[in-house]
């Protein structure tokens, strides 16, 4: 059965029980016909190749990807999950793939912590951002429930 999943570019992940689409790099919801439908709609897998797949998936009793625990921070990258590059606020660890969003966050919530320097009182926001980070998450583009790898 595991070989059948691999032939469809699906990874049965353990110990965090999940089905990961290796082409997309994220865990799929395993309810009803979701996995088979994903393969058909996103990857053009013919119905004949997907026959019986949803029954197999349902026997695994997989949790919703929203319920999966985040992996430990700074752990080795998961080989089947997509990588996202981004940054984090040094004060609260808010993560984003947008430095502009983090800059607005800092100006709004941590104005008092940002040192003003220079003749014009320029704010050195980069001192409050940890950048060039690589993240992974169980769900597609889910930076808020991600971990640093």
Automatic annotation (TrEMBL):
Pfam families: OrsD. InterPro entries: OrsD. This is C2H2-type domain-containing protein.
